[in-house]
Design brief:
This protein is mainly beta and 452 residues long. It has four helices and 27 strands. This is Polygalacturonase.
């Protein structure tokens, strides 16, 4: 495992021949996301230039994008319509997608957000969050947005969607934000989504946010933001099911992939879980977590599979995080075949992470965490092996570590630091450095070895 390389595909087109829609298979059950969402060929094609689009980097093309998508929405061509963006830099305000469409970026095409924050449209907060994630009240609409859609594809020849997020990051740093920053791409209440072969840059906030969605494929994408850019999560599947994320590179200022399902009392009331999410063949760099579950987990999270993950210069390799007041559950999470290098902390499973939306949350709404398996991990230059800390009145159970080898910086006796455990039970097999006593239960070792 040490020194292995991950080749991330950069194909200019994706061909999916299956038309089956169904749950994402368990990690290792297949090599690709094929079968989750059918890739459709659009015979009807239009260009943004047909609607007055100008790719000179100065002309504002908001009207052109909105008129082109209005045309797709109301003509309702059989099989949908492809909107072609030719090479050039197309400055635009936010716009909404519609069903049965493909947004196709040619090689050399850049869709770039205007930086007019004062006129950026506002929308209502997500019901599972109750308010904006950063500020009370509403939130700024994502740069590219969609609600209640089906059969939507964002793809091309590795063209770029650039959020020009620096103005938003500075507002966050200076504490002058009026409302929560916009995501780069957000799709709500939607199904049959493919995002592939596009570069995403400089998101104001989270990059790709499918929320209340099902049957979503995100692969062959590159997501980039400065290492110090605040809250620029890569991909955040949120209260969504049947999601597959694969063959991508993410280098951002926050978690590479973070699975979420709502925030405290609002997420509990909305009750929309995240389930059957597969993450595979991912590389990345971040000061925060490579693979994260949480911390917003109030609707419940289950059946999460991550494999073949390569992490370099990250804060925490794998981070499962929740808090008192969250309620909900995290169960049946399997993460395997992870290589990490130059990492502050290899593994963290913690019940005291994350803030609260308001003073009305119930501190007695305790999360239920059971069945977290981490196996086949090789870490080098890791400062601390890991921390696993449950809640004293809601211990984490069924934690399984198998074939986990974490090394510190080169030199005699540099074993990768130590493990810290509290209010947790489970088992360990072939773990170096040897974990805490709470994970040394011989009666649980067999089930740990046989876990999926």
């Amino acid at each position: 495992m040490p020194g292995r390389l991950l080749l991330v595909a950069a194909a200019a087109a994706v061909v999916v021949i299956s038309t089956t829609l169904g749950p994402v298979p368990a990690a290792g059950a297949g090599l690709t996301c094929s079968g989750i969402v059918p890739m459709r060929y659009r015979y009807d094609r239009i260009s943004i230039t047909d609607f007055g689009g100008v790719g000179d980097g100065r002309t504002v093309n908001t009207k052109a994008f909105r008129e082109a998508i209005y045309r797709i929405q109301h003509l309702r061509r059989r099989g949908g319509t492809l909107l072609y963006v030719p090479p050039g830099v197309y400055l635009t305000g936010s716009f909404n997608l519609t069903s049965r469409m493909t947004l196709y970026l040619a090689r050399g095409a850049v869709i770039k957000a205007v930086q007019d924050t004062w006129n950026w449209p506002l929308i209502a907060p997500l019901p599972s969050y109750g308010r904006g994630r950063e500020r009370p009240g509403g939130r700024y609409i994502s740069f590219i947005h969609g609600d209640g859609l089906h059969d939507v594809i964002i793809t091309g020849e590795n063209g770029t969607i650039d959020g020009q997020g620096s103005v938003w990051w500075n507002m966050w740093r200076q504490r002058t934000l009026r409302f929560t920053r916009p995501n780069l791409v957000e799709l709500m209440n939607s199904k049959g989504i493919i995002i592939s072969n596009v570069v995403f840059r400089n998101s104001p906030f989270w990059n790709i946010h499918p929320v209340y969605c099902r049957n979503v494929v995100i692969h062959y994408v590159t997501i980039l933001a400065p290492y110090d850019s605040p809250n620029t999560d890569g991909i955040d599947p949120d209260s969504s099911s049947n999601v597959c994320i694969e063959d991508s590179h993410i280098s951002v200022g926050d978690d590479l992939v973070a699975v979420k399902s709502g925030w405290d009392e609002y997420g509990i009331a909305y009750g929309r879980r995240s389930s059957y999410i597969t993450i595979r063949r991912l590389t990345g760099t971040t000061p925060f977590a490579g693979i994260a579950v949480g911390s917003e987990t109030s609707g419940g999270i289950e059946n999460i599979y991550a494999e073949n993950i390569n992490l370099y210069r990250v804060g925490v390799g794998v981070h499962v995080k929740t808090n008192a007041g969250r309620g909900g559950y995290i169960r049946n999470v399997t993460i395997s075949d992870v290589y990490m290098e130059n990492v502050r902390q290899g593994l963290k499973i913690s019940g005291d992470v994350g803030d609260h939306p308001d003073e009305y949350y119930n501190p007695n709404a305790l999360p239920y965490v059971k069945g977290i398996t981490v196996r086949d991990v090789w870490g080098v230059k890791v400062r601390e092996a890991g921390l696993i800390r449950g809640l004293w009145n809601a211990p984490f159970t069924g934690i399984c570590l198998s074939n986990v080898n974490i090394r510190g910086w080169p030199g005699p006796g540099r074993s990768g630091g130590r493990w810290t455990c509290e209010h947790v039970s489970g088992a360990a097999h072939e773990v170096n450095p040897w974990p805490c006593a709470e994970l040394a239960s011989p009666q649980h070792t067999g089930s740990c070895l046989n876990s999926p």
